Amino acid sequence: MILQALTAWRVVTALVLLVSIGACADTPPERPNILLVFTDDHASHAVSAYGSAINETPNIDRLAEEGMLFENAFVTNSICAPSRATILTGQYGHLNGVPTNYDTLHATTLTFPKLLQAAGYQTALIGKWHLKVYPEGFDHFEVLRGQGPYYNPVLFSADDSVAYEGYTTDVITDRTLRWMREERDDDRPFLLMYQHKAPHREWAPGPEQLDLFVGQEIPEPSTLFDDASGRTSAALTQEMTIAEHMSARDMKFVAPANLTPQQLATWNAAYGPRNEAFEAAGLEGDERTSWQYQRYIKDYLRSIASVDENLGRVLDYLDAEGLSENTVVVYMSDQGFFLGDHGWYDKRWMYEESLRTPLIVRWPASVTAGARSDALVQNLDIAETFLDLAGVAIPESMQGASLVPLLRGETPPDWRDAIYYQYFEYPGPHMVRRHYGIRTGTHKLIHYYEIDEWELFDLEADPDELRSVYGSTEYAEIQARLAMRLDSMRVHFAVPSEDPVPYER
Predict the structure, then answer these.
(1) Using alpha carbons only, what angle is made at residue 224 by residues 221 and 229, rounded to the nearest 5 degrees?
(2) Does any domain span residue 125?
(3) Which end of the chain is less congested by CB atoms within 10 angstroms, N or C?
(4) Which contiguous run of DSSP H or E holds residue 488?
C-alpha cells in the first residue's frame, strides 16, 4: 500500500508539473525574453555610462540611456568560475561548490537556466562558459573550451565541435545572431546567454581595433604608483603589478599563438614598429611602468571596443525584428578589474575596482529610460531576478534577492544595507591572500583570515582605499559595529568556520 501510494503521489506530482509548465508555455508576452550579455573582467570604470575617463562605449551606454544603471553592483567573489557559478545558482561559492577556479559545478546543481527551461523557455548559451561541466538546462549551446583564444576559436556543442576563422568576439556574435535568426521559436520566450571572452587577459585586440588609440595618451590612474604603505602586508605580497608581473605576451612582444599567416602579418604590421620604438627608447623605472600601462590599457580598451561594436549588432537585430519591447537585456561582467589602479591589473580583491561590476538592465515594459539605482546589489541576485521575470517560483536555497522591484522603481523597505564578500584561492595565481569582508554604503571591513590582519576603509573620506583606519580610536565604534555585523552575515549565509577545501596546489 505504501508503494502504491508513493507511486500515485509521483504520478500526481508529475501531472501537476506538466500542467503548470504547459500553462506557462501558453502564457503570452507577459513573460519577457531574457538576453544576458556577459563579458569577462570588464571594469565598470571602463564604461562611459559609469563616467569612464578613458574610453567610450556607445552601445553599452545605449542600454543605460534606455534602461537602468546600477551604481553599486558588486560580486560575491571576484574571480571567473566562482562568479559564473554564483550567477547560475544564486548561491555563494561555499554552498554551490565553486569557491575557486579549480572547482567544478556539479551537473545536478539547481540553476536558473534549468528552471526556465522547465517553465517553457527556449534556452541558449553561446560563447565563454568556463565551468568544468557539461552545460545543462540549455536547448542549444556553443561554448569555448576553458578560456578560449582571441582568434580562430573552436566552439563545442552537444553534437559537434567546429573551428572558426576570425576574431572570437565577432565569431560569438555571428553565432548568436544565427541562433536568433534560424533557431529561435517565435511561439516561446527565450533565455539567451551571449557571453564573451573579452576583455580577459591577454587583451588581444581584433584586426579592426589594432590601431585604436595610436598616438593618444590614456590618462594614468592617480594610484598607479601607490606603494601600499597604508594597508596590510597582503597588499605588499601580491604578484599582479604592471611594473613587474606582466608577460611578454601581455605586452605584445609575442603574438597570439594561433594566428593565420594573414592575421600574423596584420598583427606584426601594427605592433612591430611600436615594439621597435620601445626598445630604442631604453626606458627604465617609472617611465617604463608608464609605457607598460599605456600598452596594457590600450589593448584592454581595444578589446572592449570590439565587444561594444558587436553588442550594437545584436541590439540592432532586436530592433529590426520588433523584439526590443519584450526583451529584457542585461549587460554585466563576472567581476571588475584593476586598470592600473594601485599599480595593478587582474582582480580577486575586495577593493572597489575589483569588487564592482557593471550592471545595466533595459526592460522597456517596466523600466524608466535613463533610470539609476544606488541600491546595493550583487551577482547573487541575477538568478532570482530572471526567475521572477519569468514568473517562476524562486527556490529557498537561493541566497540573493530579485531586482524586479528595483527595476520598477520600488526599493523594498528591507533591502540590504551591506554586502558580504569572500575570496578563497590562495596560494594561486597572483598570490592574493584569502579574505572576507563587509561593505556598507560608507565603510568596508576586510579580514585576511590566514594571517589575521584587518583593514577598515572610510569610503567617503578615502574612496581610493589608500589608508586603512583599522585600530584607530576615531573609528572604534564603527569598527566594532561592522565586526559584529560581519559575524552575523557569515552565520546568515551559512559560511563554514573553515574553508571547504585546503587549496594545497
Answers:
(1) 130
(2) yes
(3) N
(4) helix 476-492
What is the residue-averaged pLDDT of the chain? 93
CATH number of domain containing 72 = 3.40.720.10
Give bridge partners of residue 455 from the DSSP assignment: 446
Which pairing describes strands 161-163 and 190-195: parallel, antiparallel, or unpaired?
A: unpaired
Longest dimension (CA), the chain: 88
Cell of 18: 506538466
Cell numbers at 358, concatenated: 557593471
Evaluate whether residue 95 is within a structural domain: yes
Total domain count, the chain? 1
Helices and strands per DSSP (H, E), number in the chain: 13, 14
Cell readout for 79 is 574571480
| CA atoms of 373 and 406, how far apart (whole Å) | 7
pLDDT at 500: 76
Mean pLDDT of 303-317: 98
Residue 207: exposure state from Cβ atoms within 10 A (0-12, 13-18, ≥19): middle
In this predicted model, what pLDDT tens digit does every residue of 218-228 receive, in sequence order?
Answer: 999 999 999 99
Question: CB under 8 Å to 9, separation ≥6 — which residues?
Answer: none
Cell triple for 393 = 517560483
Helix, coil or strand: residue 87: helix
Q: What percent of the chain has pLDDT over 70?
A: 93
Residue 168 lies in a domain: yes
From the number of C-beta atoms within 10 Å of its C-beta (0-12, 13-18, 19+), residue 491 rates as exposed
* CA dist list (Å): 339 to 83, 240, 468: 20, 11, 21
Cell numbers 604590421: residue: 269
Q: Mind listing the pLDDT tens digit for each residue in 463-472?
A: 999 999 999 9
Query: What residue numbers bound the domain in which 117 lies?
Result: 31-205+293-411
479 Cβ neighbours under 8 A, 6+ residues apart: 445, 456, 470, 471, 472
Report if residue 213 sits inside a domain.
no
| Grid coordinates of 259 | 594566428
> Do 40 and 197 meet the contact criterion of CB atoms below 8 Å apart?
yes
List pLDDT tens digits, range 67-123. Answer: 999 999 999 999 999 999 999 999 999 999 999 999 999 989 999 999 999 999 999
